[in-house]
Amino acid sequence: MKSPYRSLFIHNSLDGLREGLSHFSGPSRVALLLALAPGDPLHVIDPQQLLNGHEPRLEELYCSTAGWKTPHPALACLRSGDIIPAPDPGLTGLLAFGGQSSSAFFQMWFTEQHPDLCSPGPTLRWLEHAAGQLAQDTAISGTLRNSTSAFVLQSYAFHAVRDYIVDQRNYTLGPDTQLRVYPTLDAILGISCTREEGAWPCGRLAFVEPSMLCRMSFMAGFPRMEQPVLRNLRHCRKFLQAVECAPRTLISDGRSIVGISCDALPPGTIIADYQGRHGFLLLDDEVICSFEEGVFHSTNRRANLVQFEEALLESGLTEDHQLNLMRIVSHIVRHARERKHGCTLAVDLRAVPRNLAGQTLQTPLDLRCEDHLRLATSLSKIDGALHISGTGELHNFACLLDGRTVPGENRARGARFNSALRFTAANDDMIVIVVSSDRPVSIIQRGIELTARCEWSPLPGFAPQPPVLEDWLRG
């Protein structure tokens, strides 16, 4: 690790991987454990402290035991860039991939497992590709590949999704398949950006292995010479209207649209579930990722209400009331995000709810009732907050939240957010959930945004010498 060239390309690869994952999954960090040759100590490359808090597990795996130091019997026969995978270290909240190679003896890559991740598969394929790139870089001397790996890893999202689908279909169907995944994904993203009379696409389009089409029954089939070819995105977009808001599915063999079916789909089927401006990519029943504006993302597009759940656990409410409030809040927040309108929910934890300035109801609505919950969801569109008690009843709507100026206000966040900060600062037993019209969700209690995230410090512009694991553990 004393070579400046090697330190530089490792630093560039780490930065490129972090940038790519941040676009795919939101702000992300990356870390690496690396020993370039047998007998070398394990170095820690963790510029953004991703591994902090995992020291006991790392010490147990890589200091107390020497299993990782034992060369694999097939190591000498490996081609440059090939990896023999090592067991996942199992660090909580982290995804990891690593192994041994002929040019880089041992490496283990880490990144965050975001709570809204559809599937860890594409991210793991991304880490696997990073390991392969590092193995190739270390096998080549000179500066030929100095920044190549960084650029490759930064723009690997599309390929990571494809690699994961190919791997899973190989497990299910075997390697001899006819459906080409790259053109399929190109068509899915192309159709997602194609509007028909101003409307975004809705409905399901399934890509079935051609050899399995004979197992399906079709409501409507098209003669081969008249099937819309997949290259004609606008024509395929028109046909998608036949399955909008219906249990029917448009069927393709990867080259053209072959028909419409309500039948169960065979294994290994790639499904695009269009839901307007966004959609989801599935392989059989597994949601792999979402897509929007022609780009794949790892998010499942559900609001992250973990902080609200934790606040309820500390509130002293009964378990039944906590579960009811989670269900009620999740329903209203999800509806507001889908319809892209802002709303505010003020959850009152007091035994006797306070009086808030707003539209009062003669009889509180029990939101455990589905009809009442749907009504409350509609009332959330009206300016002002919904006042919900700890027992799950709606007491007021269109409520005004006010208070004195507090630290942490941000004019860039709008009136809802700042009013909630002021109000909760003066009322400790209130939790306010603010949904912005552009989909971010903020959970505020005691004048503090519980969902706030610290900005990660950027990577330094130089490649510092990484510490040995034992020195890093001692701090």
From TrEMBL:
It comes from Oleidesulfovibrio alaskensis (strain ATCC BAA-1058 / DSM 17464 / G20). InterPro entries: DACND, DACNH, DNA_integrity_DisA_N_sf, DNA_integrity_scan_DisA_N. Residues 305-458 form the DAC domain. This is DAC domain-containing protein. Gene3D superfamilies: DNA integrity scanning protein, DisA, N-terminal domain (3.40.1700.10). It holds the Pfam family DACNH. SUPFAM superfamilies: YojJ-like (SSF143597).
